[in-house]
Amino acid sequence: MDYSIAGGRQPRGRRVASDNPSSTLGGGDMQENMYDQYGQPRQQQAPPQLFEDTSGQNYDYGNQGYGGMNYGYPPPGQPNQGASGGYGAYPGAIPGPQIFQDPLVANMAMQYGQSLASQGREYVDKKLEKYVSMSQVKYYFAVDTPYVMKKLRLLFFPFTHSDWSVRYEQDEPVQPRHEINAPDLYIPLMAVVTYILVAGLCLGLQERFSPDVLGMQASSALVWLVLEIFVIFATLYVTAIQTHIKSLDLLAFSSYKYVGMIVALLAGLVMQSLGYYCVLAYSSFSLVVFMFRTLRWQVQGGAAMEAYSAGNKRRLYLLLFMSGLQPLMMWWLTKHLVAV
Amino acid sequence: MAFGIYSLLEAVVLFLNAVCILNEERFLSKLPGWGGSQVHGFGEEPGVKTQIFHFIRSIKTVMKYPLIPMNIFIILFKLIFG
């Protein structure tokens, strides 16, 4: 996101540079090249001086000049053209002082462009930060392949896993890629998209498919997800339970069920409704175990609070409610997709 | 099955209407525990009833005026598109 803004803004700064008259030198594209890497001013100061020396001894400096050029500019293709054009046009154009001035102007333009870019970036960041903090969202997508494999295994076989706590490092939870128990949003996102596609496939095999069905599936899946999260929030509020759970955590936990739904639907495709019900039963059972164990750590905050917390029973009910909701939702969202 | 985003919006508006229409003098004040802001000690978790009353009061305060245009919009939408 940052890069796109910078890319969008930068040309404005550069255009100012090319507006000033000395850029008719013919070395226009070369100058741009130069200002692109203007971050190191010492090295970049060298080329203009090289020009000034050249004007005196045009003849024997040519070869050396090319060498110097290639040394100064990393990409070898463009500078060659630029340099030859520059030498050719140089005597006719405005002499020394203008060239000396040019980097200054360009420098200012560059700074102007940069300040514009950073202003724009700040503005967008601030606007976005108001609704969702990007760094928080990035945390949920810090996954890698081994993590995804392990997490999927955990979703379908959570019985032998014993340690459900999330490690903390300087008050920050460890990223999912290093911590199997941390919630992520990568699996849920992919699972929701896959669920919609699989639903389309199921409907297509039953000759019930039309393009708008996909949109309907997506909309209704979204609405049920929102409703579920809203109900959980309302419960949390009404029972006045203090937890570590952030709203994005809740989103992650309540959309892990799509993984089980996809598998159940695929089983339903292969083995009709019998396979669907068997797989649905198993996957919802394992999901309940997974949710209950994960959330118990999250809601009750480990064993530390258990000793003296008054609302312990409430917490237990909340846990049972949240994990008991999952099979219901799984069944409700898939039952119309399976051939009877 | 057609429970889309628009239906959710409608449902939310209807729910908010239902909360806002509860009459303060005739109904709510007769409920036990309404209005009496019980003082609870430090660290004591407020009860379920307190939280619900708090919730109702908040909705009544905040959503009173925004609900009017929302209702008008939905009614017009229904009239035009059925």
Automatic annotation (TrEMBL), chain A:
> PANTHER family, per this entry?
YIP1 INTERACTING FACTOR HOMOLOG YIF1 PROTEIN, YIP1D-INTERACTING FACTOR 1, ISOFORM C
Protein name (record): Protein YIF1
Keyword list, A-Z: Endoplasmic reticulum, Golgi apparatus, Membrane, Protein transport, Transmembrane, Transmembrane helix, Transport
Q: Which cell locations does it reside in? A: Endoplasmic reticulum membrane; Golgi apparatus membrane
Q: Give positions of region: Disordered.
A: 1-59
Identify the domain of life. Eukaryota
Q: Which species is the source of this protein?
A: Homarus americanus
* Function as written in the Swiss-Prot or TrEMBL entry: Has a role in transport between endoplasmic reticulum and Golgi.
Q: Transmembrane ranges?
A: 185-206, 218-238, 250-268, 274-295, 316-334
Q: Does the keyword Transport apply?
A: yes
TrEMBL record, chain B:
Report one GO cellular component: COPII-coated ER to Golgi transport vesicle
Keyword vocabulary terms for this entry:
Membrane, Protein transport, Signal, Transmembrane, Transmembrane helix, Transport
Identify the InterPro entries for this entry.
Answer: Yos1
Major localization listed first in the record, in broad terms: membrane
What is the annotated signal peptide range for this record?
A: 1-18
What role does this protein play? Regulator of endoplasmic reticulum secretion that acts as a key determinant of brain size. Required for secretion of extracellular matrix proteins. Required for correct brain development by depositing sufficient extracellular matrix proteins for tissue integrity and the proliferation of neural progenitors. Acts as a regulator of the unfolded protein response (UPR).
Q: What is this protein called?
A: Immediate early response 3-interacting protein 1
Q: What is the lineage of its organism?
A: Eukaryota, Metazoa, Ecdysozoa, Arthropoda, Crustacea
